[in-house]
Design a protein that fits this description.
By secondary structure, the protein is mainly α. It has 12 helices and 3 strands, in the order αααααααααααβαββ. It folds into 2 domains: 205 residues, ABC transporter type 1, transmembrane domain (ABC transporter transmembrane region fold); 160 residues, no CATH class. One of its GO terms (cellular component) is plasma membrane.
């Protein structure tokens, strides 16, 4: 049974939200506990001075606490939305950065730039909402503190006028009241932090990190990436055209089933057919694109008369050189494809004439992502090689 790897999005959420929620609660509780204890001590002293003095102080505290909890919940919700949108922007930035060479080579930069900008604008809007809510929070806190102080001072004046409190007790109560009011926002904030921290602990406990620790350390793409039309538009348009090289490439890469999902958009002449594809599906599409590109370039080597590298019998051209051996460097290029499909792809490639699939390092650095078969008049050390790098990650 195949083990399902945790999604990269889960790790990003854990790092940007869940871990910080648990840490914040752990750091906040000791300081809040000290202030709450001081507030309770101040309330006890007021009850000793006069019952009504303690009742009024506790009633004001309960009302203020309820209002503060309501305000803090709103702040926490805004902050949570801000973290989620920031995490999405980070995930998209990581994905674009990991595929920068391919994006530049296929001129897909404007499309992905707009995709990232939309996520960034959403994150900035949430940040502005957090700032506005925090400003309102401070105003509410100041208003509550002022109203509570005036009400408490009025009660002390009334009790002192009737002789129920001495001047010393009244002065002591006024000095202790800030301790009581100071505990209110701390207690309210602890209440607001408890629920997110409990949910964060549950998500962290459910996150299976054992597979990630024992698996490959490479960064994987996330499964929310749209199919980039400029990247695979050629495959979409040419599918069904009868090109034997394209048919062989799609069959070997097991990519035909992926492209079939986007046929309605192509039939409607949609300018940018889109859809969601997983990392493994993107890798299969990339492999098909590279093989298709190579099938066209191989004609420069005299692979005419129906012969060639893509599964057809080896034929020597009357006027050109022999078909060169194809070395397909696939360094982690299918690591996100599920194991059964990867085995079928490897078997299909191994059955092709004069095709050698290797996992060796590239000579002198990385090669062209989608294949680089040199011109016929060039004399490179490796005359025909298609290099696929591990730039398409994700769940297969």
């Amino acid at each position: 049974m195949r083990t399902v790897r945790p999604r990269s999005a889960d790790y990003t959420t854990a790092l940007t939200s869940d871990v910080s929620s648990v840490v914040r609660l752990g750091e906040f509780v000791p300081r809040a506990a000290l202030r709450i204890c001081l507030g309770l001590g101040a309330a006890l002293v007021m009850f000793v001075f006069h019952v009504w003095l303690g009742v009024v102080a506790c009633a004001a505290t309960v009302v203020a606490y309820g209002l503060m909890v309501t305000v803090n919940r709103r702040v926490a919700a805004r902050v949570s939305h801000s973290r989620e949108s920031y995490g999405m922007a980070v995930r998209r930035a990581e994905e674009i950065a990991s595929r920068s060479r391919m994006i530049a080579g296929l001129k897909a930069g404007p499309r992905l730039s707009a995709w990232f900008s939309a996520s960034l604008r959403t994150s900035l809007e949430h940040d502005r909402a957090v700032i506005r809510t925090n400003s309102a929070h401070m105003s509410v806190q100041e208003a509550l503190g002022g109203a509570a102080l005036l009400g408490f001072a009025g009660v002390i004046w009334a009790l002192t006028s009737r002789g129920a409190l001495s001047v010393g007790e009244a002065t002591t109560a006024m000095v202790l009241f800030p301790r009581l009011s100071d505990a209110i926002p701390w207690a309210a904030h602890v209440f607001v932090l408890l629920q997110p921290a409990r949910e964060a602990r549950r998500r962290l406990a459910a996150l299976d990190t054992s597979n990630a620790a024992s698996g490959p350390s490479s960064v994987r793409l996330f499964s929310d990436t749209p199919l980039i039309a400029p990247l695979f538009e050629g495959l979409l348009r040419a599918r069904g055209s009868g090109d034997p090289g394209l048919a062989a490439a799609l069959e070997a890469a097991h990519a035909d089933e992926v492209l079939r999902r986007f046929e309605p958009a192509v039939a409607r002449e949609t300018r940018d057919p889109e859809g969601l594809v997983s990392g493994g599906q993107r890798q299969r599409l990339l492999l098909a694109h590279a093989l298709w590109e190579m099938s066209g370039k191989q004609r420069r080597y005299g692979a005419g008369n129906g012969g060639g590298l893509l599964g057809a019998p080896e034929v020597e051209s009357e006027s050109g050189p022999d078909v060169p051996e194809l070395r397909l460097h696939m360094i982690g290029a299918l690591d996100s494809v599920d194991e059964p499909t990867r085995e079928r792809i490897t078997t299909a490639l191994s059955a092709w004439e004069r095709v050698v699939v290797t996992e060796v390092a590239l000579p002198g650095g990385p090669g062209n992502l989608t294949g680089d078969v040199p011109d016929a008049d060039a004399t490179p050390a490796d005359p025909a090689a298609t290099w696929l790098e591990p730039s398409m990650r994700g769940e297969g």
